[in-house]
TrEMBL record:
InterPro entries: A-D-PHexomutase_a/b/a-I, A-D-PHexomutase_a/b/a-I/II/III, A-D-PHexomutase_a/b/a-II, A-D-PHexomutase_a/b/a-III, A-D-PHexomutase_C, A-D-PHexomutase_C_sf, Alpha-D-phosphohexomutase_SF. Residues 3-132, 152-248, 256-360 form the Alpha-D-phosphohexomutase alpha/beta/alpha domain. Keywords: Coiled coil, Isomerase, Magnesium, Metal-binding, Phosphoprotein. Belongs to the phosphohexose mutase family. Residues 126-168 form a coiled coil. The keyword Isomerase applies. It comes from Campylobacter canadensis. The keyword Oxidoreductase does not apply. Its cofactor is Mg(2+). This is Phosphomannomutase/phosphoglucomutase. Pfam families: PGM_PMM_I, PGM_PMM_II, PGM_PMM_III, PGM_PMM_IV. Residues 365-437 form the Alpha-D-phosphohexomutase C-terminal domain.
Amino acid sequence: MKHIFREYDIRGIYASEITAQFTKALGYVLGKIMLSKNAKSVSVGYDARLSNNILHNALIYGLNKSKIKVYSLGLVPTPVGYFSTYKCNIDANIIISASHNPKEYNGFKITINKESFFGDELANIYNEVKAQMDNFDNKIEDVEYEFLDAKEEYLQFLQEEFKDLKNLNFNISCDLANGAASYVAKEILNRLNIKNTCILDEFDGEFKTHEPDPTEEENLQMLKTQMQKDNSSIAFAFDGDADRVVCLLKDKIIKGDELCYIFAKNMQNPKILCEVKCSKIIYDEINKLGECKMCKTGHSNIKKAIKEHNFNLAAELSGHIFFNDIYFGYDDAIYAMLRILRIYNKNPNFNELLDNLPKSFKSDEIKIKVDENNKFKLMQDFINNINSLNLNASIILIDGVRINYDDGFILLRASNTSPYLITRLEAKSKERLKEFQIFLQKELKKLSLDLTF
């Protein structure tokens, strides 16, 4: 069970790893911790997964036992949970979600006093949760909570914040992935009278059409078809809990780091944070505009860093965008969509901005399936091998290993949410990219891992 306590949340397979009994014990332990941190109330929300009714009940049962005041948000996007701690006078929040993972997964994202509960703090409660499980079972229980309609407060906030977008005169298409964005994203577009077509806009925890992961290009095919049908010039795809967004133009999928560059171009002296998978070109170009620093992957790591160092904006390649200029510093895909539309309305030539970037050749984010229990050892063995080679490059160990050359980079890191090693490469020429690929394949073979480009 220990492996489900990941770097920045709890995530595992429902019924075998995440049970009602486990969730009751978790709720009890978290409630006690929240109270010890002077957090006297907690909001609980969940995404569209079929296991969430049982886990919602079990989590609140455990929280009730801890004596903390509980509010239920119902089925909401993860950002609405965060929002409740900023605008609804709630001290803590737990979202039941496994984000983009397949339907059999579920998990918990935890915020206490506006700060993510993650890393060592999260890992250190494992033994206590395990010990408390003897005091609970898998029964459905009567629970006590008040319903809080934070979703409506969030919609009203967005409606006021983006009133300048009222009556936009172009069509947009959205794929809501049958997830938590399904009501909220469509509703705010309608309230702003923005012409839109939303597909997969009903909750479906089976995710029968495609998995709620917009970073996999196969999951964007329906949206591309819908764009053509609607004659839309811009479109958006969301993940399962609506904290990640991918933006599409007619001839381009815009990655999270490219979105970050577009936002930076529209800020004065931007102070930006990007994670280790982001393009070297993007780092170099944003540094010409202001400042761009590198950090570990993971929403909790980024939310902590963005506030500690007062960054204006942070981004992950996967579409987590964190606004800390006139927003609250957390990742919110629906808010990000509206910020994109604000820029697009003033200058629809996104392509020109991106086409004017220095040319580079890069791989997609490639996943290498490994044993969940062995992935961090494999990663350490890879780092040891790289350090022994005396490469003419900068070796960055912020998160896995990023081998930074003047003309590109090679990255390998362990996923914190799935049983994979993740790699990405970038070079200023096709020939150099091929050299990087051959080098990485050779080094992975030393670990008995095969990689095909």
